[in-house]
Design a protein that fits this description.
Blueprint lengths: L5 E4 L2 E5 L6 H16 L7 E6 L5 H14 L3 E7 L2 H10 L4 E5 L8 E10 L2 E3 L3 H13 L12 E3 L3 H20 L8 E5 L5 H11 L3 E6 L14 H4 L5 H7 L4 E5 L6 E4 L9 H24 L7 E6 L5 H8 L3 E5 L3 H13 L3 E7 L3 E3 L9 H15 L3 H10 L8 E8 L7 H12 L9 E3 L4 E5 L4 E7 L5 E8 L2 H15 L1
Parallel strand pairs: 3-4, 3-5, 4-8, 9-10, 9-11, 13-14, 13-15
Antiparallel strand pairs: 1-2, 2-6, 5-6, 6-7, 11-12, 15-16, 17-21, 18-19, 19-20, 20-21
Helix pairs in contact: 1-2, 1-4, 3-5, 5-6, 5-12, 6-12, 9-10, 9-12
Length: 499
């Protein structure tokens, strides 16, 4: 196994195939998850099982099935399927949970396992405390294998129907939000990195009657480029940034292998940054609901305060979008599971939770599924374009105009090596003290200690977040300001405080 990393955390398990990740590791992790499920219900739990389509994933799908069935779970094998689709289908099929063989945006040599739970008709990632229970079981070694109570295995034969459940749900909701008969975007370019998002994205465009050109829509599972949908990976010759203006398309969409993240390229071929994905989707949902609210007001109805949920490292763009529509944003620690946990809690308390997500291109539209979903992101952006008649570059300029002074947003990220997660503690304490009771308190900043420390200078449109990474031995420092120079200046000030 050598020095190859095996990352085990709230997002599941990831490792390098043949080194830190072997079929035996997959069997044990799936067995740990399955045993945890089995102890919490009556009878054999049913787990939907699928994979992101990357080459070689079939072996780990079989290994996961063996682990789940070996502890008494019944398995519904859905083959290649997007992570958000797994959530939609698991609910539709009456499953108790889902397991996806995926390493998300990690390169070709990686793979892993991700878990979803299903409760009260909703699928979602396990909370941090539940994830820790599963991890502890995995670390203890082999689970207690069932004797004569080995689970059943079933293959869902209709791949088209499985994919369609998710796509049709998104289309129905977009129709309700507002999908005009005319003025739709003319052409879309898709980059699905030859993985699980290809079929769903293509089908979505057909049902929305939008012409689509698919760059990498094969099902061979070999990535045409490093799969994380970043500017660097989409800017190569013949890549998405070239193809959009070359094909005179209105927009380009890039998915990661399990299709839970979405990056956008505007009509001139400029990568706009994943932070704008969530902001544009927030604008789409809130503006669509606002039009409906105005209609209700004329009929005597009352407007509700919409709530959006995002982690502390996500741009303040969504705060500025929310304010324009009488809404507010609730912040959480970093991690999809943390965002979803707060969304569900607020909803149970009677709040009008309309959207959640993270600044990595992960959009959570709760009316579809409590999982980051690239199809929801695509549909919401296309709906916004169609309803407003604006190009993506014009919509980005509109979002930028919401910022304090209308100067826009610039995020700068840094990282510093640390020996352990605990070593970030003293730095975080110094920063918090400096801005609450030290010289920095004169800036009238707001300090949030949920996850490391985030300091907001609201009037300036500036914030900085410092925290220990959950997956790497590093401390992350992220700052946002109207200009890059201002963001760099804030990071320099924070570095001076740390000493």
């Amino acid at each position: 196994m050598g020095d190859a990393p095996l990352i085990v955390g709230v997002s599941g398990l990831r490792g390098i195939v043949g080194e830190s990740l072997t079929p035996e590791v997959a069997v044990r992790y799936a067995g740990a998850f399955g045993a945890w499920l089995a102890e919490r219900g009556d009878g054999a739990p049913t787990v939907l099982l699928c994979r992101d389509g990357r080459h070689g994933g079939g072996a780990f799908l079989d290994a996961a099935a063996a682990g789940l069935r070996g502890v008494g779970c019944d398995v519904l094998d859905c083959g290649v399927l997007m992570t958000p689709s797994a959530g939609v289908v698991a609910v539709e099929r009456g499953c108790d949970a889902a397991m996806i063989v995926t390493a998300s945006h990690n390169p070709q040599q990686w793979n892993g396992l991700k878990c979803l739970l299903v409760e009260e008709g909703e699928a979602f990632a396990p909370t941090a405390s539940v994830a820790e229970e599963i991890i502890e079981r995995f670390r203890r070694g082999h689970p207690a294998w069932s004797g004569d109570a080995v689970g059943l295995g079933e293959r869902d034969a209709d791949d088209a129907e499985v994919c369609a459940l998710h796509v049709l749900l998104v289309c129905d909701l977009i129709e309700e939000l507002g999908w005009p008969a005319e003025g739709r975007p003319g052409r879309v370019v898709l980059d699905s990195v030859n993985c699980s998002g290809a079929k769903g994205a293509s089908r979505l465009m057909r049902l929305l009657d939008v012409e689509a050109v698919q760059l990498y829509g094969e099902d061979d599972g070999f990535f045409p480029h490093t799969p994380e949908p970043t500017a660097e990976n989409l800017s190569g010759e013949g890549g998405l940034c070239d193809a959009v203006p070359g094909l005179r398309a209105d927009v380009g969409f890039a998915q990661d292998p399990d299709a839970d993240r979405l990056a956008i390229v505007e009509e001139h071929g400029r990568y706009i940054g994943e932070e704008y994905t969530l902001a544009l989707c927030a604008e789409s949902v809130l503006s669509g609901r606002h039009e409906g609210t105005e209609a209700r007001r004329h009929g005597g109805g009352e407007a509700e305060c919409p709530v959006l949920v995002a982690n502390l490292s996500t741009s303040r763009m969504i705060d500025d979008v929310a304010v324009r529509y009488g809404g507010r944003v609730v912040r959480t620690p970093v991690g999809e599971a943390n965002v979803v946990e707060v969304m569900k809690r607020l909803k149970a308390e009677g709040e009008d939770v309309v959207l959640g997500g993270e600044g990595n291109g992960g959009v959570i539209w709760p009316e579809v599924v409590y999982v980051r979903d690239s199809l929801s992101g695509m549909a919401l952006v296309l709906s916004l374009m169609a309803r407003t008649g604006k190009t993506v570059s014009e919509l980005v300029a509109q979002i930028d105009s919401y910022s304090p002074g209308g100067r826009g947003y610039a995020i700068v990220k840094r990282k510093a090596a640390i020996a352990s997660k605990a070593d970030a503690g003293p730095a975080v304490e110094k920063i918090a003290a400096y801005y609450t009771e030290g010289p920095g308190s004169a800036s009238r900043a707001t300090v949030d200690r949920q996850d490391g420390v985030r300091v907001d200078f609201h009037e300036k449109g500036v914030w900085v977040h410092v925290r220990a990474s959950n997956t790497e031995p590093i401390m992350r420092l992220i700052a946002e300001a109207p200009t890059e120079a201002e963001a760099v200046g804030v990071l320099a000030e924070v570095a001076g405080v740390i000493g």
